[in-house]
Specification:
single chain; 272 residues; alpha+beta; Helix Hairpins; Chitinase A, domain 3; 2 domains; seven-stranded antiparallel β-sheet; 7 strands; elongated
Length: 272
């Protein structure tokens, strides 16, 4: 069943390759008048003799779109998978003249999977190293700024506004407003933009937050520069790359007491 599925995916590339050839010989889509676009769409709709034919075409078109994106991603890694070669493989198999046996085809695909995996790992390692260096450089410069202090763990902080309230303990629940950015200024999170303060137990966040917020008094605003080992380390997610130094502006609004939690819960039930 696997060879059939792989062949179906490759067959979709015929549409992709033919589509690319058509694009070279046709006028750009954005230069067509609205009436021409409507006429082309109408002609396309009439090009199918049956609903089955239309459905089959749609399946192929969908696979071609997927393959196009996939090939572009592999190109970014440094692989050069020629669309004409893919088309030749499809044509040869349809003609019964494949240059590879089924076992050889599977082996080639497995080798491709390994190459892609190795290249992705190498790229991730390179990016992580760049992030580490960028973070080291940023922290070195930030530490030179007036008023910046450094804890034993490596956490850097700067008091932007002093508060007069209590300091929380690691076991406390706090209410804060904050903005988080990468060292290049890219913002990845902000309670200000949500217009909603965040409330959470202080011992259930990244170590840099747990340590840093305990230095704050209610009503204060600090700027924290958190090294990777006190943040997410080598773990990466869509918004925070591996080995990222993180920059946070944090306002400590309140320390939530257990009775406040109970009152908030009771109030919510009373308004239901």
């Amino acid at each position: 069943m696997k060879p059939v599925l792989k062949m179906s995916a490759l067959a979709a590339t015929i549409l992709l390759a033919v589509g690319c050839q058509d694009e070279k010989t046709s006028a750009p889509a954005d230069t067509a008048a609205p009436a021409q676009v409507e006429q082309t769409a109408a002609e396309s709709a009439q090009a199918f003799d049956s609903e089955d034919q239309k459905a089959a075409y749609a399946i192929g078109a969908s696979l071609a779109q997927y393959l196009s994106a996939n090939l572009e991603q592999q190109k970014e890694l440094g692989l050069d998978l020629n669309k004409e070669d893919v088309l030749a493989g499809v044509s040869d198999v349809f003609a019964g003249n494949s240059r590879l046996s089924q076992d050889e085809t599977q082996q080639a695909l497995q080798e491709l999977d390994k190459r892609v995996s190795d290249m992705m790992q190498a790229k991730a390692k390179e990016e992580a190293a760049k992030n580490t260096q960028a973070g080291d450089d940023f922290r070195t410069e930030f530490e030179k700024q007036e008023g910046v202090k450094k804890t034993e763990s490596g956490l850097l902080y700067q008091v932007e506004k002093a508060g007069e309230g209590e300091k929380p303990k690691a076991t406390d629940t706090v209410q804060v407003h904050y903005k988080g950015t990468l060292v290049d200024g890219t913002e990845f999170d902000s309670s200000y933009k949500r217009d909603q303060p965040a409330t959470f137990p202080l011992n259930q966040v990244i170590p840099g937050w747990t340590e840093g917020v305990q230095l704050m008094q209610v009503g204060s605003k600090f700027k924290f520069v958190i090294p990777p080992e006190l943040a997410y380390g080598s773990q990466a997610n869509p918004s925070i790359p591996a080995n990222s130094t993180l920059v946070f502006e944090v306002e400590l609004l309140d320390i939530i007491q257990p009775d406040q939690d109970a009152e908030a819960t009771a109030g919510a039930h009373n308004h239901e």
